[in-house]
Amino acid sequence: MKTVSVEDFNNVDMDKYAEDYSEDGLWTKIQDNVANIGLTLIYKALQLYYVAQSPNCPAKVKAGIYAALGYLISPIDLIPDFTPIAGYADDATAIGMALLLAQMYITEDIKAMARNKIHSLFGDKALARLDGNESAYC
């Protein structure tokens, strides 16, 4: 299994991935790949999506969020998404870096919007699974 080092990731031009971001692309990626991406990573990506919609979010933070979400959407990245087990490890790193950038803007309202979207996309069972895993990742 290929691992992604911080050095590998720091050498990625994230700005080009911001161009890959689109709202339709995000929803399609999430709905078509929930089993591979994982519910927790989707929840974190949704938090970023809603932070970027917030009028309180500065442009610099939004740019970082759109780059990370564009990286998630893009099929071309450090580890191809179709690679078994490791395919979304680099995507998780991108989302994690954006979460660090945006953490002060992730309010309880943002978390609630992300949870509501998980519920509307995947139903009660997904929300229950998220509740069971959320404390380990928050």
Your description of this structure?
This protein is an all-alpha fold and 138 residues long. It has one domain. The protein is built from eight helices and no strands. It has helices spanning 6-10, 15-18, 23-37, 39-53, 59-73, 89-102, 108-122, 124-137. The relative contact order is 0.18.
Q: Quaternary state, please?
A: single chain
Q: Nearest-angstrom radius of gyration?
A: 14 Å
Work out the strand percent: under 5%
Reported for the largest beta sheet, the result is: none
Question: What is the CA-CA span between the terminal residues?
Answer: 27 Å
Percent in helix: over 70%
List the helices and strands and how they pair.
Layout: H1 6-10, H2 15-18, H3 23-37, H4 39-53, H5 59-73, H6 89-102, H7 108-122, H8 124-137
Helix pairs in contact: 3-4, 4-5, 4-6, 4-7, 5-6, 7-8
Question: How would you concisely characterize the structure shown here?
Answer:
The chain is mainly alpha-helical. It is 70% helix and 0% strand.
Observed structural traits:
mainly alpha; 8 helices
